[in-house]
Amino acid sequence: MQNSRHQVTTETMIMVNFLEASGAPAHPIFSGSNVLRAESIGRGTKGKVTCVNKEALEWCISSGHIPVLSSIGETSSSQLVSIDAVHATAEVAKAVQAMKVLFLNTTGGLRDRGGRIIEEVHIPADLDALMKQSCSSQDHKTKELVCGLVADLPPLSSVVITSAKTILTELFTHHGSGTMFKKTERILKYSSLKDVDIDRLKKLVTRSFGRVLKENYFKELEGRLHTVYLSEGYSAVAVITQEAGLNVPYLDKFSISLQRQGEGTSDMLWNCVRRDFPSLFWRSRISNKVNAWYFKRSEGSWSNSKWTVFWYGISNQQLSYTLVEWAVKKPKSFHEPDEYEEWPAITESL
Q1: Cβ atoms within 10 Å of 143's Cβ, excluding its own
Q2: Which of 137, 235, 227, 109 has the alpha carbon at shortest distance from 183?
Q3: Of 18, 43, 47, whose CA–CA distance to 31 is shortest?
Q4: Do 215 and 202 touch, CB atoms closer than 8 A?
Q5: CA–CA distance from 1 to each of 41, 78, 98, 309 (Å)?
Q6: N or C: which end of the chain has fewer CB within 10 A?
Q7: pTM score, whole prediction
Q8: Is residue 247 classed as helix, strand or coil in its secondary structure?
Q9: DSSP symbols for 96-135
């Protein structure tokens, strides 16, 4: 333990010196400071964290310093035990409710069976598929730890596995580097509206579109409904209908709450739709800011002065003409703003 303690102390000092030399004030927190309260594992000198005392960490941060914590814990009997650095990091992140956590490995992230970096993992939606992928026992333990950590962090937080070589790309670019774990809601699938909270769904659609649905929308939808994809927290929805006389399903609504936009929820929802529907068409107002996103995910489109009609999985040109003609004539499902004298008050109250 003495050699291990000396090595950890030396590494902590090296990190502090590096940060200071780079213009980042740092403060070391060595073993014995009682930050990592631990219990020993077996009869050895290794242990696991039972509690994190945040006072020293908060003091460092409030004084303008980066705390550099050594992974040595202290038991209730004042015994010093060596803590796995990954485990210690996870416990500290939980204690301070970190918004972003970085782990470094030599491969720059988690890799799939083809050796490619897995860029994003949505928890819990991707959890089963991730854990079923073959990997080393160490990678499996890392997956379990990170997935458990994400579940205990704030909703908008993220955990990234990257490498020392690519950490700057992760920190200072939009696309990042490595594997990012994010907490997202599960997408549930319904074939009818009987198990759906209509009031919550109506609020979601109204808020995201900025328009008020017509009163009979959901009543008329029942006879045409094929599938509803809805996130657990009612922050994302896709409504698919099967219209009379058409053999291609129609995407009637695709809506993401403002709070969830930019988190990958839209891609996750779209992947659910695309997986189940080999062909689909939908329309969007010509002024819709989301149209660029739709263009990237469609295989064909047609526009007039009011609407853009999109589709994928349709190779028959005559069929696409038929779908476009139907879409542009489809009655609107929203009231126009000028149909309500108190339009701003309506949207703000929902």
Answers
A1: 20
A2: 235
A3: 47
A4: no
A5: 14, 14, 30, 68
A6: C
A7: 0.65
A8: coil
A9: HT-SEEEEE-SSSS-B-TTS-B--EEEETTTHHHHHHS--
